User: Which sequence fits this backbone?
């Protein structure tokens, strides 16, 4: 039984339809990556699945229940989300920010219990941010801040974690650091990870399952081998890609590509890409 899936999901803003009749299943205890050009509905889909926004029609089902009918605190104990641009943590220390992840478990005056403090310490430790506990969040580097936000999500003690472009604005080393942390959480703690990524090779390297969107619809969903193909990338991004194999993981990777303009057989613009491909229009 699949814990999390959508049925005939339609999402829009006013007259504009972003996601159209979308039905997807999220594999349990796996890393799922959503790819697609800007404006195709990736972030909108994440927001609807996590109930940040409402859909026009269709259903999001978690553990056999329509999430629109699930108590907010109960839902927050099952899924956490790290948005594309987290809210400002100005004036907060690392420990204070991570403690916010315990909100779903608090009652009465909202005082932290012994259990809360234990979970906070664990989240700081597993993300390698314990040394920054009393540091202002604003004083940290981009990679350190991202790990702290992940620690806050972990403090919610959810089985499912959503991340919207968690590597944005990070350099290559910090991108790898964050993705390896998420992979570790998946492998060692069996967390279900769902994230939006722009870098195709990062998606192929770290994901067990990929959903490729275009214009609010699924073009292809499946394993890396099924999605990172010349045909799928042509349909999704209008690129003519050369697909090879990552020598370290043996997973498919986009070695280089041409941007298709008009009739791709006669008009191409070469854009060489090597170890990483980020398709972001």
Assistant:
């Amino acid at each position: 039984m699949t814990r999390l899936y959508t049925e005939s999901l339609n999402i829009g803003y006013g007259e504009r339809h972003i996601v159209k009749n979308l039905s997807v299943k999220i594999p349990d205890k796996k890393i799922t990556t959503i790819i697609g050009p800007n404006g195709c509905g990736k972030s909108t889909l994440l927001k609807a699945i996590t109930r940040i926004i409402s859909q026009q029609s269709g259903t999001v089902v978690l553990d056999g229940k329509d999430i629109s009918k699930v108590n907010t605190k109960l839902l927050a104990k099952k899924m956490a989300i790290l948005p594309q641009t987290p809210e400002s943590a100005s004036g907060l220390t690392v420990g204070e920010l991570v403690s916010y992840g315990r909100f779903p478990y608090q009652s009465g005056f909202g005082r932290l219990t012994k259990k809360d403090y234990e979970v906070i310490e664990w989240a700081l430790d597993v993300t390698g941010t314990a040394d920054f506990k009393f540091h202002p969040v604003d004083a940290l580097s981009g990679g350190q801040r991202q790990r702290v936000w992940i620690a806050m999500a972990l403090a919610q003690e959810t089985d499912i974690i959503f991340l919207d472009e968690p590597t944005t604005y990070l350099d290559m080393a910090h991108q790898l650091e964050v993705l390896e942390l998420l992979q570790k959480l998946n492998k060692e703690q069996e967390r279900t990870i769902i994230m939006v990524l722009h870098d195709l090779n990062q998606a192929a390297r770290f994901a067990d399952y990929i959903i490729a969107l275009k214009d609010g619809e699924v073009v292809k969903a499946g394993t890396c081998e099924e999605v990172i193909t010349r045909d799928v990338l042509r349909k999704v991004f209008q690129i003519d890609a050369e697909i090879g194999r990552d020598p370290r993981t043996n997973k498919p990777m986009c070695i280089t590509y041409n941007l298709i303009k008009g009739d791709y057989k006669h008009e191409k613009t070469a854009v060489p890409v090597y170890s990483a491909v980020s398709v972001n229009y």
Notes: Residues 240 and 258 are 5 Å apart (CA to CA). The longest strand covers residues 4-13. Residues 87-157 form one domain.
